[in-house]
Fold:
Amino acid sequence: MKNDSSTPQPSKAFAALALLGLFCHPGIQAATPAPVQSRASYEAAFATISTSPAYVLIEVGDGDTAPLHPVCTTANFVLGAIDREYELGSSRDDGLKASQIAVDHADHVFRFHRKAALDNIPARYSEAELAAARSLLAPLSNDEVQAKFSSLYEKDRLPMTGYATDAIACALIERGFSPKMADLSGQVYIKR
Structure:
């Protein structure tokens, strides 16, 4: 068909605006990328095994095709899942191998095929609990967050009653912090 100058043709600008309108329509939501923990924080979490383990933010999938879901948990639980997935032993060398496998997953994505591995890293918080943790931290500056989570003294800390510990750790990771779990109290804290 011949382009007739008397027939109006949509301009490229109009087409671009129409496409933009499609993506901005309130009923259509673009996929938001999962938050990512810094590489340094992630690697440090696996560098030292401690009674005060560091938290990591990973994505977990059941097998090769199941959708991924984000999970914040302590590094030792991830290492336990790796141990179960790869059937490693309990020797020091096996522990080092598990740590290396964790660090080699630079994208923080783990697809476990064994039920025992998946069972070792369940999400121990709901989306609503994560949203509550984010809301709790939202009004605070990073300096205030640092101050409230670097002390283990109750009087200096943010009141945490009713909040899921792992959800708080996840919200802290999303803010760029490297939280740990206190070995005796189980509180989430940040080293100064």
